[in-house]
Amino acid sequence: MTARYVHGACAHIDPLAIAHNLRRLREYAGKGVGGTGPSFWAVVKADAYGHGLDHALPGVLAADGLAMTSVADAYRCRAQGWTKPILLMGDRLTAADLNDPVLYPLHLVVQDAWQLEQLERFSGASIPHVWLRFAGKLNHAGFTACDYPAAYARLHALFIAARVAGIGHLQHYARADDAKQLALERHAFTELTAGLAGHHCTENSAALLASPAIAAQTQWLRTGIALYGVSPFSGNCASAWGLKPAMSLQAPIFALQDVQAGEPIGYGGAFRSGRRLRIGLVRCGYADGYPRAVRDGCPVLVRGRKTRIVGRVSMDTLTIDLTELPEVRPGDHVTLWGSGALPVEEIALAAGTIAAQLLTGLTAQVARRSASGG
Amino acid sequence: MTARYVHGACAHIDPLAIAHNLRRLREYAGKGVGGTGPSFWAVVKADAYGHGLDHALPGVLAADGLAMTSVADAYRCRAQGWTKPILLMGDRLTAADLNDPVLYPLHLVVQDAWQLEQLERFSGASIPHVWLRFAGKLNHAGFTACDYPAAYARLHALFIAARVAGIGHLQHYARADDAKQLALERHAFTELTAGLAGHHCTENSAALLASPAIAAQTQWLRTGIALYGVSPFSGNCASAWGLKPAMSLQAPIFALQDVQAGEPIGYGGAFRSGRRLRIGLVRCGYADGYPRAVRDGCPVLVRGRKTRIVGRVSMDTLTIDLTELPEVRPGDHVTLWGSGALPVEEIALAAGTIAAQLLTGLTAQVARRSASGG
């Protein structure tokens, strides 16, 4: 009976899947257990891509560092016991943050003149490692090709004075999912940084999976979406690379409804069936972050079998066809994405978006629970 | 300088706007201060339409009752000091919940046979008021026209035995935004309930605003979206009815970027400008719930002036055109929706969705703060 009272949607997070994916990605980069190869930043921005930082951390313990946008998340990771490097990729730090030994070993992405000046003023007991960011073709902050050498020279002066711990070169590709564009972006960065000492950090999930041999030549990789078992490319699934989804989104059926042939289902009355249907009412909707934009027929799983959404997703309810599944009962849980049989990539396609948007778009209404499926 | 360090997006909630909207809606229903007219359920489901229950409650103190989906939210409202009726519209209650005097005065929507049986077994010190739900054209739970009279008879027997406090008739319209369909749905319900004693609760924001004279003939209205100052109809804004937006979504500019003519901006490289642009990088993205699907040119407000998004919205950044706004600096806040000059309805249109999806889709990354703008 208790299952009748599980009220809302729940994202089950499997840290073992994340750990598995990290091992797989290391293999792609030529680094098995105990081998050599690039170091890995595990990207845990956006609350670990919606998985919940606390739930994801046990899965990334073997990473060489954690990369994130927000300094608040950096403090959370330290509070959870993370002692290896942290890479801060977006926030501007206060002088108090820069001086806080808790954040160290700290790597900072330097992307504008304000940050250069801050570092030139700063003298603390701990000193950060810095990564100079190239604006590239993304143009989300970073130095242009014209300004990059001068910015490097200023950082190099700080390095000589032992006021930064090291200098690396970093960029975010704008089109890593397009082989030709990726090659052009790589080439431009190689040209730009020729003759400038320092490690490179440019390769993300898409670049690594598309061309592992090239990615393996850099010193630090940044992997986000693939770490969570999701493809960075539209139109295929991460299982093609042996990666496992780390999140399974589930919600309970709270009632059943028999709907006569020709009657509408849902707001707007857009869906009508030509025959009588048995409908399951599922306690999940767009207020949970489930995409309102999914096309009719979007798949779901219940009791191991695939069926489909019928009618428009509403704020707190979605409706699924149970006509051929008479054994299903209120209290049964429906998998909305995330098992091997129903990858989130498929739902993203049905919603006209990308998987990262679905994962990170789950709202606070959705409980996150750790559940190791192996 | 402190503004430089406000890191993320924030939704400013104005409870005075909600209180104003409730007064306006009462006027539409023919009930001014001290007058007569229907009672109002203020719908606070989905964390008060994304506004945050705690922030919205001070705005709905004058409502006659609060309506919600989840029993957990009912307990939160009681903990906040709400003593008037609560209407539970979705969750199945445990016997312990039904017996908990804290939840009373309690109104329950009865939508399936399981609930009827539960009430027939139940005998507690406090007894709930019940609302029998018609499946209507929505078919999200509720009794069909065939089953409704028998369900009513069973509830009536409980009422005679003083085991429920009262019986009302309730439905959710499937197409309240379409005048002709609304008239048909109203007519069907009037026919169905003819001769059955009890109050009616059928009219929502759209039905009230479209035909206030008809809505005013019912005893309890349920208003959700309009209460938050947002139109229930696509293509127009709630200001047309004198309603005020209760949420303003803002995010800081964390850096500026000069982009040469012909260079791309954002992932995928879909946007290129024919001329040099000055870009503001705003700390808000789809992981906050801002819609990734907005078309290029979607408006934003900064320093009171309208400008536009250029390039694709990414996980934690969106890029706006500041070429004609040279006075804007990092640390300035951008309004993404919610002021009178930039209604959320306009953003919903640009994103191909509805305003309720945007409001309720904000994630836990977005801070909610109370801010009374009057």
Give the topology.
The structure is a homodimer of 374-residue chains.
Chain A: E1 10-13, H1 15-28, E2 39-43, H2 45-49, H3 53-56, E3 65-68, H4 71-79, E4 86-88, H5 95-98, E5 106-110, H6 113-121, E6 129-134, H7 148-160, E7 166-171, H8 179-193, E8 199-201, H9 205-210, H10 212-215, E9 220-223, E10 247-259, E11 264-265, E12 271-272, E13 277-282, E14 299-302, E15 305-308, E16 318-321, E17 333-337, H11 344-351, H12 355-360, E18 367-370
Parallel strand pairs in A: 1-18, 2-3, 2-9, 3-4, 4-5, 5-6, 6-7, 7-8
Antiparallel strand pairs in A: 1-10, 10-13, 10-17, 11-12, 13-16, 14-15, 14-17
Features:
homodimer; 374 residues; alpha/beta; TIM Barrel; Lyase, Ornithine Decarboxylase, Chain A, domain 1; eight-stranded mixed beta sheet; eight-stranded parallel beta sheet; 12 helices; elongated
